[in-house]
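Retry 2 of 3 after timeout on previous attempt. Resubmitting structure tokens to design endpoint.
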């Protein structure tokens, strides 16, 4: 039995206990709580690609965001606050793209009325908030997930199998670098997206990108013991959040490196990609080229130091092709959200992000907290 409570609201009993056959084809009514993330447009598109789904309403405090939802995305009803949205609309699921510091509040409220919730990555701005979100959704027994743009890339799971089979021997070093140049153009970003450049609202390169590295780190290398980290601003002396950051992770039997940036111009690195992900073992190196349709895996050893060997990766099933597709599948089948989109796993991601944040502010090595108790 999972850690989730058996407590159910009337709404969750109807949808998640037994799941009548009629619900498998029933229309899913979606509400968009906050249009504050650059990924919101993609989420709206993905919901509309799922059969028998209707986005019925959206809410945001910024008039420019409301205009975008109404005039560009043609969402029929628009509210000024997400509280109005969930109070007035008859919804089946809420998708929230809010500043990271607001995630816990919206999840508390939505779980309390028994609705499924999809939060745009990362899960939360702090470990305290992440654990609060886990407890709220498990007590309500509602589907809850964190959307990551790379959920459709099966290479992450395939990498786990390869490492378990010993293709690179014993892992001893993990490396991640991820970034973009968005902080160099923040003056051109819309007002509703300016929070990304404010640490007080959960912005900055570290919290934006470190989770992309924490995912394969946890899946392939395991939980780090402790870490040291430093962040800085380089291009804007008045910046209100880090522009670039680096963390060194200590494991039981190895080391790791996480680097993030909001001022990276071009992607000229080893892969020419936004992210570089690799794990080194005593018999070889596994490289993940994220961003391809399913993610590409390459193995390098002393025989193929330069060219490497490409490992074919099978696509995810249709219900796992995107976070939105997975949430729709969970609602219609009553099956739990698991894997790297689950709240429990994302709490682990936030534990690394949060430990890095504390290491940056304290200048000390910080212990990564253990897994959350049930």
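Retry 2 succeeded. Sequence:
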């Amino acid at each position: 039995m999972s850690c989730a409570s058996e407590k159910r609201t009337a709404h969750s009993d109807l949808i998640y206990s037994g799941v009548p056959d009629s619900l498998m084809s029933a229309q899913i009514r979606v509400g968009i709580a906050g249009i504050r993330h650059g990924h919101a447009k993609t989420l709206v598109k993905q919901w509309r690609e799922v059969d028998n789904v209707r986005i019925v309403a959206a809410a945001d405090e910024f008039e420019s965001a409301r205009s975008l939802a109404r005039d560009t995305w043609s969402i029929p009803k628009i509210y000024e606050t997400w509280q109005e949205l969930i109070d007035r609309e008859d919804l089946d699921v809420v998708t929230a793209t809010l500043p990271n510091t607001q995630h816990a509040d919206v999840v508390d409220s939505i779980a309390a009325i028994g609705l499924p919730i999809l939060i745009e990555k990362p899960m939360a701005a702090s470990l305290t908030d992440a654990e609060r979100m886990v407890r709220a959704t498990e007590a309500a027994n509602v589907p809850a997930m964190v959307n990551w743009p790379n959920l459709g890339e099966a290479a992450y799971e395939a990498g786990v199998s390869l490492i378990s089979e010993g293709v690179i021997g014993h892992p001893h070093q993990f490396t991640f670098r991820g970034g973009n140049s968005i902080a160099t153009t923040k003056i051109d970003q819309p007002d509703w997206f300016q929070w990304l450049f404010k640490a007080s609202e959960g912005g900055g390169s570290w919290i934006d990108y470190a989770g992309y590295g924490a995912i394969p780190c946890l899946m392939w290398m395991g939980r780090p013991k402790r870490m040291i980290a430093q962040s800085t601003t380089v291009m804007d002396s008045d910046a209100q959040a880090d522009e670039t950051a680096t963390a060194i992770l200590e494991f039981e039997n190895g080391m790791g490196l996480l680097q993030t940036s909001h001022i990276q111009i071009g992607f000229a690195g080893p892969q020419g990609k936004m992210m570089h992900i690799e794990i080194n073992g005593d018999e070889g190196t596994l490289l993940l080229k994220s961003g391809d349709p399913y993610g590409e895996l390459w193995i390098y050893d002393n025989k193929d130091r330069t060219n490497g060997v490409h490992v074919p990766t099978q696509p995810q099933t249709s219900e796992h092709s995107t976070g939105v597709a997975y949430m729709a599948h969970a609602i219609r089948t009553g099956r739990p959200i698991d894997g790297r989109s689950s709240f429990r796993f994302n709490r682990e991601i936030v534990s690394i992000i949060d430990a890095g944040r504390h290491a940056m502010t304290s200048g000390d090595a910080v212990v990564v907290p253990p897994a959350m108790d049930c």
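Attempt log closed. Residues 100 and 202 are 5 Å apart (CA to CA).
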